[in-house]
């Protein structure tokens, strides 16, 4: 076939695969505004849209009772001194804006997506939400009731029950990850409880802002006017850095009965490394090969070859302190035992045999591709840099992660599996119908 200039394109020849030697991840422009709030600007993209993220240091780790951090964050949009919950929803909809609220282990997040042309109007709403929420009792009651209903629905699902039982078994009841929310905890939430948490953690000395998208000078100036000049909030102490020591259960296997279950949920898990352990980044490669993508060892054996499940995965669950390695699947009740045996078989193989170079190359290409996709848009860049801040990594994290993937060898995989995939420490949690 003739192609334009007369060159022939031979489709039988595979294009060259080029190794990624360097990750050019855009750095945020950083400054500290007059009131002490840190501002991080990621100006990238052609669309007239910006995203503004406010991070407040204060999550489950800092709360005095279950659900306090979650509902404090959730209720910010339910009414302020200037706007009712209906007005907030109506105005955001009218201006084509979107608001996301989320709470994690040590941080709360308030995220606004806005068209640049309506930024003056949407920033006013954001300012009111952050600085002057009123936590109305009526709206709180409705939201709590809805959450209780959702909790009861989830409590009838085997995957939810297995996940809760695993967290408790691995971390213990005192640790925030193992302290399970109960139905009664919802009844202990009231406006005063939320106001206490808000006053302690939502203030200018505890706030970091990221703005990403097509960020012009006018956008930065408006953010500085709203959130950077005057101090806001009441209690200007930084939150205490709290450490919790996991206390794992002595039980190897935990069974949570669900008599009506058609399938059983299987969760296997153990404490893993802290983020700053020298093996951490390379261990993530080993875990990806083991069960972290569609072509992994667990998927190839247990799904493709044995047909025990539609899907099985392994991954590291992030949290402060020791993180958790989790193996996650659902299967027919009669396949539970053979499935677990195959998981241990795959661990044995990783610990005793060298991974073929071709298989390792496939995992590397997958992970490097995921890295590139994660840093290609302004909003994903903001997510990446916020993750670096929350995790306590330095500015070299992306290059460090790239080097860990690029440089790992089959010998490294075998050594890491021997050190960090301990079959004796893996808890086995099954939720489903009891087999006779």
TrEMBL record:
Molecular-function GO terms, alphabetical: metal ion binding
PANTHER family per record: METALLOPROTEASE, PROCESSING PROTEASE
What the entry lists under InterPro entries is as follows:
Metalloenz_LuxS/M16, MPP/UQCRC_Complex, Pept_M16_N, Peptidase_M16_C
Pfam families attached to this UniProt entry: Peptidase_M16, Peptidase_M16_C
Q: Which organism is it from?
A: Bacteroides stercoris
Stretches assigned to the Peptidase M16 N-terminal domain: 69-171
* Domain spans labelled Peptidase M16 C-terminal: 189-365
Protein name listed in UniProt = Putative Zn-dependent peptidase
